[in-house]
Amino acid sequence: MITDPRALRLERLPGQPGAGPEEALVLHFPSDVGYADSAVDLLARHCYPDADPGRQALFRLRVALAEAVANAIQCGNGADPSKFVHVQAELFHDRIRLAVTDEGPGFDPTAVPDPRDPDLLESPCGRGLFIIRHLAEHVEFNEKGNTIWMTLLRW
């Protein structure tokens, strides 16, 4: 856990009602696992500021975001605290679109092995992405492979 709560600053961007998200939230923080839980907590709270999303929707958001942030810190940025993780949440009436970007070289998501393969059960590789793909309604990556977009139902 981070000791200085001022280290995380959430930026709110105005939305484009009718043409896009109602609001966007942006958060940047160093690639240090000590920031991960606080970042996920902060974003989850602000994705549902005036409503109770229900246990399942909140669980899906928190776990998918935590896995993506952990992958960005550890795999993408190599846990280098001089590099940053960038998170954006676009809030629509019925869904949330999360983008998590790292400053690493990227990867080919199609080359990630299935962690259910009996030969890979002891390997940590691919588990986070497997979980994300099962929790989110839609998952996609940029061409470089350093940004993941996850769309989750909001309610």
Short account of what is shown:
It contains three helices and six strands, in the order E-E-H-H-E-E-H-E-E. With 155 residues, it is α+β, with helices and mostly antiparallel strands.
Helices and strands, with pairings:
Layout: E1 10-14, E2 23-30, H1 36-47, H2 55-76, E3 84-91, E4 95-101, H3 127-135, E5 138-141, E6 147-153
Antiparallel strand pairs: 1-2, 2-3, 3-4, 4-6, 5-6
Written overview of the protein:
- The chain is an alpha+beta fold.
- It has one domain: Heat Shock Protein 90.
- It has three helices and six strands, in the order ββααββαββ.
- A hairpin with an 8-residue loop joins β1 and β2 (23-30).
- It is globular.
Residue fraction in strands: 25-35%
Roughly what percent helix? Answer: 25-40%
Helix tally equals 3
The topology string of helices and strands comes to: EEHHEEHEE
Q: In the residues, how many domains can be counted?
A: 1
Question: How many strands in all?
Answer: 6
Distance between the termini: 28 Å
- Radius of gyration (CA) equals 15 Å
Shape: globular
- The CATH topology is given as Heat Shock Protein 90
Determine the structural class based on helices, strands and strand pairing.
Answer: alpha+beta
Q: Could you describe the largest sheet, including whether it forms a barrel?
A: 6 strands, antiparallel
Uncertain residue ranges: none
- Calculate the mean pLDDT score and round it: 92
The CATH H-level superfamily is Histidine kinase-like ATPase, C-terminal domain
What is the CATH level 1 assignment?
Answer: Alpha Beta
